[in-house]
Every structure is written in structure tokens, then in C-alpha cells.
Amino acid sequence: MEAWIVGVRTGGVLGLTRGSHASVPRCDERRRDVSAVQRAGRARAGVACRCGSVGKEMSEPASPGAGLMDVSFEKSGAGDALDLGILGFDHVEFWVGNAMQSATYFVARFGFEPYAETGLQTGSRKVMTRVLRRNNVLISFSSALEPHDELFREQLARSGDGVKSVAFSVRDCAHAFDAAVQRGAKPVQPVRTLKDENGVVKVAIIEAGYGGTWHTFVERHAFTGSFMPGFRAMNPHEEPLVKYGAPPPEFEVIDHCVCNVFEGDMEEAAEWYIRTLGFQRFWSVDDKQILTEYSAMRSVVVTDPTEKVKLPLNESAKGKRKSQIEEFLDYFGGPGIQHIAIRTGDIVNAVAALRKRGVDFISVPDTYYEDLRARLEQYGVSLRENLDDIQEQGLLVDFDERGYLLQIFTRPLQPRPTLFLEILQRRSHEGFGVNNFKTLFEAIERDQALRGNL
Ligand SMILES: [Fe+2]
User: Fold this and answer.
1) Which keywords does the record carry (predicted)?
2) Which parts are annotated binding residues?
3) Which CATH class is domain 253-451?
4) Which residues of 71-92 are buried (b: 16+ CB within 10 A; e: fewer)?
């Protein structure tokens, strides 16, 4: 097993360390990551713990917002021997009041295309689902058809429209489900084999360890139909918004899905993914690194062994006012998916297309770009994109010595300030924009204040 860290901190790029377990001392507590080590002020120069945690020299605490910050890229976890055979994100399933209208919103604003549907006309008596696709990104919207559907009624009353399931493509659905349940996952639906003239798809569902949200395992072997057996294909060219709408953005894949949990629950949630699904810790930042004048948070990212599925888990830390995570938890009625990040290969044009379609993005102050230009010059980093285009589209940039990422965040997509989308482009950079967090969170807090929730 290897441990990684990109040590970047205020005042200078520290460099990349790749440590092997054979040559590094053991950390006392396997579960403690670099953030915890830093919190305790015990990080040493170039010291990597054998548990996979890595500490870089920190003669003084990082000064958030004053420059570049330490982040930790980790590969560690207790689930080394467990491989559920996850191949990547399959789709994200929303539960909403009106699946037809929600789907149309995503077609109009985000350029998705109608892909498949099921409902009364296809023999589905309880749930209507419409599935949208844009390149390799699949999202679905489901609504209950019966007046007294307890599951939907409770979900929508508590959380409003939002994500119910983050689905993973798997090699073997039965293996993934059985292995997860054996390790303590709460089963929601055992393996179901769905068949029609186009082939077979197997699905099974478990509940995420933090509760409420589901993970659906989807096994598709040689299925030639649209989405799943029982779904009717939709012709995107019959959709007027596709025919006559503005040019759509080009998406690649779902990059990551972020979950907010209650303060104090983040480590337990991460451990659940490691223990139950064989995930690994991948990245983390702590509340010394992510704080504004009013709030602070911690984040840890877990990933499957192939690193196709990345799930950041966020929790609040003590702050002067209500954090955006607390606001989310209040309005969602508990933990759940806060944002879905969609990766594109051309973010400048993708965001320009989305803006033409009326997508409402968080606004970034001009001072951010003055600071960005100075930092890029300071570290000798050049971007392939034009900085004026980046500023015009309101993109945030984060970088280290290996590469950079460009990202932007929408405002919430429903009346409750819960789910939003991120659009991002990676250029040899595997982080999540830690050096933009302060700018981003201050922008969100300005919106929170306007909502009366700060
Ligand atoms: Fe994100």
C-alpha cells in the first residue's frame, strides 16, 4: 500500500511525497488521518505513518485563505481485502414530487436528453420514472403514483425533492449486495433480475451507513435496451427543448457525489464505507483549513478501489453562525447528498452553454481573480485556458505542482437550500478545490444571509 500527499501550504509548494509502508514509522491510531495529526500539532517533515496517513512539516498551522493550504491525498483503509467489483457511478436517482416536470427542468437548464421512462403506460403501477442522459451522465427522477405511498410521502415531506440513491455499476450484483450486507449494510431490496427482449439487468439496494440515502448496485451484462428492462426508450429528437434549445454542454462523467452528515458523524460514515463496501480514504481537510469568519467544516473523501467512485463526506465544526452544512441538514431533515459534481473536458464552453440556458451559479468577487493571477504568477503556473474567459465564466481554479482543476457551483436547484450541482474540469489534478473553499463558502454565506439562515 502506498501513501500520497501533495504538500502545498502557505508560502510555498512543499512537494509531493510518495511513501511506502515498509519505510515509514507506524502511526498510533490507524484511523487518524493527516488532518488529525495536524490538529494535534504533531506532524513532522516528510513523515508518513504506516497506516497510510501522511504528515508534512507544519511549523505553524496553515492559514486558511492566506494562500495555498496543506491537503492530504491518502490511500488507506481497512477494506483492502474487500472488492465489491464496483465499476463506477451508474446513475443518480432523485425522488421528486413531479418527475415529468423535474426532468424537463434538467433538460432545459442543463442540456440533458430524455432517455427512457416507465410508468402506468409501461405497466409500472406504483412509480413513474423518467431517465435523462447527457454523454455518460445518467440521472433519473421518480415520483409515486399512489396517494398513500408511505416511503415517498415520508421522504418528500422530510427532505423535499432530492437525491434518494447514488447507484454504482458493479460486475456482480449478488456478490456486491451479499458482501455489503455480510459486513453490516442494511438491505433495502435484495437482488432483482429484470428481463425484457433487450436482455437482463440485476439490481439490489442497500442503505448508506449514515441513513436515509440508498446505494443501488446495477449489473448490466449485454443489455441492449434503454436504461433497464421495462423502460420505454425516449427519442431525444422529439423533445422541443433538444431540437430548438441552445447548444448543450458536453459532460464526461459523474466525478463525485458529496454527502453532508451531522457534526461528529463524519469519521463513522467514512469507516462505514471502508468496512462495509471496501472503500479507502482518499483525501481529507480539517476545520483549520476550511473556515470562514462564521463557520468551519471538515471533509474526508472515500473511494472504491478503482477510484472511479469518489464520495466526499462533510461535517460542520464549531463556528460563530450557522454553517451551510447545518443549513442543509435543517432543510433536508438529516444527512444526504449535498452536491453532484459533473466532469467536463471543456468547462469554459460548458459553463457558457449552461449560462445561456439560464443556470444560476454562485457569484465570485473580482478580488478572487486578482488574487488568483498573483498566485499563479507566484508559483509559475500557467493554465491552458484564457484567464479572461475563466473570470468571465466565474470559474474557480485550484492547483498544485502536478496540475490544476477548474470548478463552479450552481445555487440550490429547489426551493429548499439543499442540492446543487458542481461542474468541474481536471487537468492532472485529483483534489476537490480546497483552496477555493473559503471563497466558495463566503459566497454561499452571502446567499445564506439573504435567505435569513446565517
Ligand atoms: Fe465537489
Assistant:
1) Dioxygenase, Iron, Metal-binding, Oxidoreductase, Phenylalanine catabolism, Pyruvate, Repeat, Tyrosine catabolism
2) 256, 339, 422
3) alpha beta
4) bbbbbbbbbeebbbbbbebbbb
